[in-house]
Amino acid sequence: MRYCLIALLLFWPARHAGAADLPRAIEAAKRSVVGIGSFQKLRSPAINFVGTGFVVGDGLSVITAAHVIQDLQNAERNETLGVLIPMGESAQFRAASVVAIDREHDLAQLRIAGAPLPAMQLGDSAAVAEGRALAFTGFPLGMLLGLHHVTHRGMVSSITPVAMPSSSSRKLDVKLVGQLQRSPYAVFQLDGTAYPGNSGSPLYDPDSGQVYGVINMVYVKGLKEAAIATPSGITYAIPSNFIRELLRPR
Q1: Binning pLDDT at 50, 70 and 90, where does residue 226 land?
Q2: Residue 188, class by beta-carbon neighbours within 10 Å (0-12 exposed, 13-18 middle, 19+ buried)?
Q3: In whole angstroms, what is the distance from residue 39 CA to residue 49 CA?
Q4: Which residues, if any, are the signal sequence (predicted)?
Q5: What angle separates helix 17-30 from helix 2-15, to the nearest 10 degrees?
Q6: 161 contacts: CB under 8 Å, gap ≥ 6
Q7: What is the model's pTM?
Q8: Closest Cα partner for 32 from 149, 155, 194?
Q9: What Rg, from alpha-carbon coordinates, does the chain have?
Q10: Confidence band (pLDDT; 50, 70, 90) for 2?
Q11: Could you tell me which residues come within 8 angstroms of residue 15 by beta carbon, excluding any fewer than 6 positions away?
């Protein structure tokens, strides 16, 4: 019995390391996670929030989901695309330009000016296996709750073929599920709950803080309003190795 007790005590810290490191990982991630939105001087409010992004590389590159910015690329609206940096109860707006878009994998790279922000490191998504516990930080419901970081945890329930969101919706609905068997690449299916505004959030390891994916859609039962009222608890993320391809010099 004594030897069994010793073995249990030796195993205990390793099993709970992730729980201890998560608060530190969250604090680090919050310095890199930004809102994605637009600015229009004559509009009220002038700033419009549409999704989440996170900083990588030299601190001036921001990754988000391509569908987050697709409606903001209409020059006729005289809107300025940019990122929102939370500063207490307010936010600093920084104009951004679109550097690259990968619509197939629902990824976009933005470039901001000014002082670099803390960057997140990319992990090798090919090393992620089903059952791995990860976290994602973003701005669910955006301006409705204020620009305050919110973190959710989720296990990789499955590595499954993807169904991309349509141009008129940011969520996966029942009709798009039929595309799963015809899709050319795999994504992470999580048992964590994401909400509108979470698209573009980094999916990261709670120990190292390395990014392994980008939240891009949730499974919606029924109408899109159900994503808030009765969330399915099924969320999808694009693996981070597609980000590496997006960032590769051309």
Answers
A1: very low
A2: buried
A3: 9
A4: 1-19
A5: 10
A6: 180, 181, 182, 183, 184, 185, 186, 187
A7: 0.81
A8: 149
A9: 19
A10: very low
A11: none
